[in-house]
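Posting for a labmate who doesn't have an account.
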Amino acid sequence: MTQTMRADSVLSIKSLCKNFGGIKATDDVSLSVSRGGIHAVIGPNGAGKTTLIAQLSGQITPDSGDIEFDGRSILRAGMAQRARAGLARSFQITSVFLEMTILENAMLAVQGAQGHSYRFWAPTHKDQGLADIAMDHLMTVGLHHRSGRIVSSISHGEQRQLEVAMALAMQPQMLLLDEPMAGMGKEETFRMIEILSLVGAEKTILMVEHDMDAVFSLADQLSVLVNGRVIATDSVAQIRSNPEVQKSYLGDSCA
């Protein structure tokens, strides 16, 4: 399926293909993400969702196609270049420094966003300017009151919240979120939905997620990926009533 690229798109994916041997992980994927709000990509296991996110972040190089971010091709840009351009990613598996405090993790992200090397030790860790900025991002995700806790001692859900704060510290235009609710209980999921709803009012989010209740609560637009191909892109209501989507992924119970 080829989606028409919109004038207000912040991200345009054009005929993106990636093969692993005989497997087409992304098969002629074209997708347009409008500036502002939350666009979710859903689909069964093995549909190519994480591979798509990895190509957008620069972790994996596509075999063909193009990726435009904010009107410019980023196809040849590395991960660091894309992050500096305003495209930040969080991973399906948490990627935080477990032996450091919540605040120290957030300060590292702020330091990286400012273009400094990761020389965190004294006197950098006492830099009040870094701490103040980091605390602002921790407040957004509700972790400011626990900023002194060692990350290994906090819950999985709180570690995911910290990842979002660290991504926000990169001052992105757009967040790429890979399974932000993965491994969470009901209360943690509800809290993350609240956080992403707040963030989505300020930033563009492209999110891969299996939790359909979370997707239906958050997304402004949905794209359905099946066997590496986008079979539909539309509003939540239209996707839920789409016969092809119901047959391929959602099932009759979601109609």
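Reply:
Got it, the structure tokens are right above this. The two ends are 22 Å apart (CA to CA).
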